[in-house]
Design goal:
By secondary structure, the protein is mainly β. It is built from 3 helices and 16 strands. About 5% of the residues lie in helices and about 45% in strands. A 6-stranded mixed β-barrel has the order 8-9-14-10-13-12. A 5-stranded mixed sheet has the order 1-3-2-4-5, with no helix packed on it.
Length: about 200
C-alpha cells in the first residue's frame, strides 16, 4: 500500500518510510517513522538528518459502528451456499424462523413459502394485500405481508414486505427467494470462490 502524505510538488526533501503497520509512506516529516530513505538522494537518512518540526500525526482507527440496522455503514459477511446454478443464503425471519432463500438480485420482491408464513403466523399479525406476479407457468395472485425483521448474518432489514408463494421446481429445503425488497438496502458483492455474500449498508 502506498500513502502520499503530502503533495510532491511542495516539498524538496521527501522520504520513503515504513509505518508501524508496515505500509510504505512518502512524507517530508518522517520523525516518527522508520526505515526512511531520502528519495532525491537515494540514501538512508539517519535520525539526526530527519526534520523534527512536522511529526507525522498518529493514525486513529475509527470505532466500528454497531451492527443492528441497515442504515449503518458496516460490512457484513454471510455464508453463501451453491445448489446447482443457484446461490442460497440462510436468513432469520422475525427473530425466530431460519429460512433458506435463493439469492436473486434481479427479483424485485422477496418471496416466502406458505410453510414459513404459517410457522410465523403472518396472516394473524397483519392484514394481507394482493399482488399479481408473472411466473414461468403464467400469471398468479399472491398475498403480500409485512415482515418485521429479516437478518442476514449481522445485517438486519426491518419493516419490509414479502409475497407468499411456493416457488415451482425449487430444490428441497428452499423456503423462498430473496429479492430487491431486502437487497436494495445494501451494496451486494458475491464471492463465489470463498462462498461468501458481502453486504455493505447503503448510505
Amino acid at each position: 500500500m502506498l500513502v502520499l502524505a503530502l503533495p510532491l510538488s511542495v516539498y524538496s526533501a521527501l522520504y520513503s518510510c515504513t509505518d508501524s503497520s508496515g505500509a510504505t509512506v512518502i512524507t517530508d516529516s518522517p520523525a516518527q517513522l522508520r526505515g526512511c530513505t531520502l528519495l532525491n538522494a537515494g540514501q538512508s537518512a539517519t535520525p539526526e538528518q530527519l526534520p523534527l518540526e512536522k511529526p507525522a500525526p498518529p493514525r486513529i482507527a475509527e470505532p466500528e459502528p454497531p451492527r443492528d440496522h441497515q442504515t449503518q455503514a458496516s460490512i457484513f459477511s454471510v455464508p453463501l451456499e451453491r445448489i446447482g446454478s443457484l446461490f442460497v443464503v440462510t436468513i432469520q425471519i422475525n427473530g425466530s424462523r431460519p429460512a433458506k432463500m435463493i439469492l436473486d438480485t434481479g427479483a424485485s420482491h422477496t418471496m416466502l413459502s406458505y410453510a414459513v408464513a404459517r410457522d410465523l403466523g403472518l396472516w394473524a399479525l397483519h392484514p394481507a394485500t394482493s399482488m399479481t406476479m408473472q411466473t414461468v407457468g403464467g400469471t398468479v395472485q399472491a398475498d403480500v405481508l409485512p415482515i418485521t425483521s429479516i437478518r442476514l448474518g449481522g445485517a438486519e432489514v426491518r419493516d419490509s414486505l414479502a409475497a407468499i408463494y411456493d416457488l415451482p421446481d425449487a430444490p428441497p429445503g428452499i423456503d423462498g427467494l430473496l429479492g430487491q425488497s431486502v437487497l436494495r438496502h445494501f451494496e451486494v458483492t458475491i464471492n463465489t470462490e470463498k462462498g461468501e455474500l458481502r453486504l455493505r449498508a447503503a448510505k
